[in-house]
Queue: 2 jobs
Job 1
Amino acid sequence: MLMLFLCLPPPYIFFALAAILSSCTGAHAAIERQVPGDPYTVGYSTRGLLIDNTPRILTAGSIHYPRSTPSMWDSLMKKAKLGGLNTIDTYVFWNIHEQTKGHYDFTTDRANLPLFLETARRNGLFVMLRVGPYICAEWNYGGFPQWLRHEEGVVYRSTSEPFMREMKRFVTKVVEVARPYMPEMGGPIVGMQIENELGDHQWRFGRDGDRYARWCGETAGAFNLTVPWIMCHQYSPVPNVIPTQNNFYCDQELEKYHRQFPDFPDMWTEMWPGWFQRWGEPAPHRPIEDIAYAVAKWYAYGGTYVAYY
């Protein structure tokens, strides 16, 4: 069947994959009609995120709200749903929401995160809210506001007290904004992320990197939210979080992942269909057949969540 799938003309491979995944979750159509909208619960097992205690295969697409305008959000989400997706993935952009220290903006134009979340709920789409607040995201300063660099004693992504204080203050504000959109309120949020791809750099900080990673997990857990927290590219165990994958291909990571984290679901937070172009290099190109094959292998090997980045 996989060979037949891959022999389809390129434009139809993605839609065939979406149809296969839809058929896998067809038994849960009643759940899809019910949530988001009505109160529900979110948990997890080795077989994926649990919506009302039922394992769900979630297929997400990234829509970064500051990279579009509020007038576009509804159309973008409708197109995502028509393409077979049931979840929207987005970062939270610190330098959009707190351009001046202590002055928050979650209501103006592209900073209107509540409107973005409400638009997802209205379209029957779940949301993976990746707070960071370091997000990378090919975004200026990785999402850090400019004023943060001038705070005395700040060492980014470390256990320096000034950095932890400011990071926790912002994350606390985001949690406050997000609470009305949690599952018990019928909201679309099914998961949240603390930090971003820390594992790629944690080793540079030695023991302090390990302490910072643990602090991130402890800080996230202390909010006592009703959705799980994740950390992508997190290679060492961290309390209160699910480690997830980012890459072009991830099925080859699963055997090692299962050995190290036997109690967690397989989640691919960023499936990279393309790449940015560096100066002097040719424009990157990834055929749609390769994208479809990578995702099909991921699900065949036990994956439960994919987000197209």
Note: Residues 161-178 form the longest helix (18 residues).
Job 2
Amino acid sequence: QTSMKNMERELVCPVCKEMYKQPLALPCTHNVCHVCASEVLLQHGYLCCDPPSEPSSPAATPTTRSPRLGRRSLAPKPDRLDRLLKSGFGTYPGRKRGTVHPQTVSFPCPACRRDVDLGERGLGSLFRNLTLERVVERYRQTINISAAIMCQFCKPPQLEATKGCTECKSSFCNECFKLYHPWGTQKAQHEPTPPTLTFRPKGLMCPEHKEEVTHYCKTCQRLVCQLCRVRRTHTSHKITPVLSAYQALREKLTKSLAYILSSQDTVQTQIAELEETVKHTEV
């Protein structure tokens, strides 16, 4: 157990304190989640590119595919460099065309506490650490296999749990699940989930990235997940946490309902007067 805990510490992102998701290898040899790195750069005023649709690997780059290619100099010729600079190649927001000095992105590494230079491309110049990602996946599978979850309602000897219920926040074996979810009752509508020891409430999932939504975009008036938040489409939009947006909307609806209820007597009086006027007009 001690060795497993020590291994788990090595698989935890230094920013979110959770296991790595799509880890990126920094030039200082440390790793950080892609979403965490994007959020850190956004906090420091950098514009982040969209997440890559497919994982990139150093083995797939032309420089490392062949030793002969790796020894070649990839620097462009002077005349080609001049043409690229004059044409505005590699421009970014806030930079004028034709300027020679590119903007370099500095990333504060949370592990070594140093500012790491990512170059002009920022996160686009980093490679996804596929080896570390596979290790995290295998570690999770090992934990799930080794840690058997027992039914919480069986009489001794307990049977191994096969189903879980988020509404009941409990794990059941097949017989106990049928017993505590009898047909024809409201509990029979509970959807079974894989057994677990930590039940989290069901949250809305992003249909695009299959991640739980955590923020609300006031400009688009829609819920967004962490990956949606760091995309360029929401760069200048007003984004707030879901809880803050919920409380603001609830206060607005409460005030509207209070105004409607306070005006109800006045409206009923006006309706009665109009009905009397209609009768008088008909007569």
Note: The radius of gyration is 29 Å.
